[in-house]
Amino acid sequence: MPKLWNETIDAHRRAVRDATFDATVELVAKHGLASVTMSQIAQETGIGRATLYKYFPDVEAVLRGWHERQVNRHLELFSGVARENGSPVARLERMLEAYARMVHQNHGSRLAAMLHATGHVAHAKNHLSSFLASIIAEGVVASEIRDDVAPSELAEFCLNAVAGPSASKATVARLVQLTMSALRRPS
Predict the structure, then answer these.
(1) How far is the C-alpha of 70 from the C-alpha of 77, rounded, in Å?
(2) In this structure, what is the dihedral angle of CA atoms 38, 74, 71, 172, given to the nearest 10 degrees?
(3) Ranges of each domain in the chain
């Protein structure tokens, strides 16, 4: 097949998947997780049910695909923050704030519990931990961050510290500040 043909097919597939993901999330928000059917998704997306079943076997697969897309978008965001200019401490704080907001946005929902049981979340958390460890290592070299604990251990500490059960914005901000104070090199 010609390259243009393949690119057109790939673009069409991505468009169908994206439209399916977006429609499904809207339906879940409107009707609840247990009420959404493949027929509703097909109708909302504007495609036939047979076409929808070519892409996904069931609603859960659609939601897993949507979640994987969201996780990849978050990783791109974190990767961008990791590459930004500025001191390691400032970048680390921005990354922890973004992570904490993301975690607390959907914390405790039935949908979150179902989707976080998949393997791609653990994979993404490993990537995020690596981003954090890299920034922490830069902070150690710049004498901004303590050097008595390995950067990989501090990265895990950070992820766990800001992902506590509270969803209030003020509490999240305090958790990030407390975590950052624990990381700073004592003067």
Answers:
(1) 11
(2) -100
(3) 1-57, 60-187
Answer whether 69's CB lies under 8 Å from 153's CB. no
Q: Which CATH superfamily does the domain covering 1-57 fall into?
A: Homeodomain-like (1.10.10.60)
pLDDT tens string 19-69:
999 998 898 888 887 888 999 999 999 999 999 999 999 988 998 888 888
Return the C-alpha torsion angle 108, 111, 117, 121, nearest 10: -90
| Domain boundaries 60-187, corresponding CATH code | 1.10.357.10
Kindly provide the b/e burial profile for residues 42-62, where b requires at least 16 CB atoms within 10 angstroms of the residue's own CB. bebbebeeeebeeebeebeeb
CB-based burial label for 164 (10 Å; 0-12, 13-18, 19+): middle
- Say what the pTM is: 0.72
